[in-house]
Write a structure and sequence with these properties.
There is one protein chain. By secondary structure, the protein is mostly helical. The chain folds into 2 domains: about 50 residues; about 140 residues, Orthogonal Bundle (Tetracycline Repressor, domain 2). About 70% of the residues lie in helices and about 0% in strands. Helix 3 crosses helix 4, helix 7 packs across helix 8 and helix 8 runs antiparallel to helix 9. The protein is elongated, with a radius of gyration of 19 Å.
């Protein structure tokens, strides 16, 4: 979690459990209100005094940043940092990663709020930018690896391509998650794969599994 907002770091199992419970309640409040969070509302929902929420998160911005960091941490753990190298060449395993990413967003109701209302606070926006840049760098490392293996054109700028890939995913997911009914995940995956392939200089045809 960011250290921008002074807060108490739990040192006991009870403290960690209390902080996590408050974070879970804040998540529910954010979903119920479309991203409008106040410390007092979270405290009321938790049945505690506002000072306890302030103790663990420092401020409203600190609480929102904690929600955002929890979201991105899970995105890294479940999608970005999963080792898929054994699944074939770059095109194949990154297609699989893209599929994981779309399904992660579809299964995570907080995604639309994270990418929208929660990121509008100026302090939180800086945190959001830092997390976005970390995602871009993760994509750039993957692209460089593909280039070293001869699986991607060497003339592609890894960071620009990584930014194009995640920028496209973020905006497409905002649109898709905001629709009712939502488009089928498979349709979203196909649209995004074309953007990924174009960014790294690959044909847009669906990659085949390596044998």
């Amino acid at each position: 979690m960011s250290t921008v907002w002074p807060a108490t770091t739990p040192t006991t199992a009870k403290g960690h459990a209390t902080r996590q419970r408050l974070l879970d309640i804040a998540r529910r409040v954010a979903l119920a209100t479309g991203g409008h969070i106040e410390l007092a509302a979270v405290a009321a929902a938790a049945g505690v005094v506002p000072s306890l929420v302030h103790r663990y998160f420092g401020s409203k911005s600190g609480l929102v940043a904690a929600l955002m960091n929890d979201f991105y941490d899970r995105f890294h753990r479940e999608v970005l940092d999963v080792d898929l190298d054994s699944e074939g060449d770059w095109a194949h395993h990154e297609r699989l990663r893209l599929e994981r990413g779309v399904r992660f967003h579809y299964a995570e109701p907080l995604a639309a709020v994270i990418y929208g209302p929660l990121a509008r606070d100026p302090d939180v926006a800086r945190e959001d930018l830092a997390r976005n840049l970390a995602v871009v760098e993760r994509a750039a490392r993957s692209i460089r690896k593909g280039q070293r293996r001869g699986e991607l054109p060497v003339g592609v700028d890894p960071r620009l391509a990584g930014a194009a890939m995640f920028g496209a995913m973020r905006l497409v997911m905002v649109d898709a998650l905001g629709r009712s009914p939502r488009p089928a995940p498979e349709r979203v995956i196909e649209v995004l794969w074309r953007q990924v392939a174009a960014a790294v200089g690959l044909p847009v045809d669906k990659p085949r599994r390596a044998r």
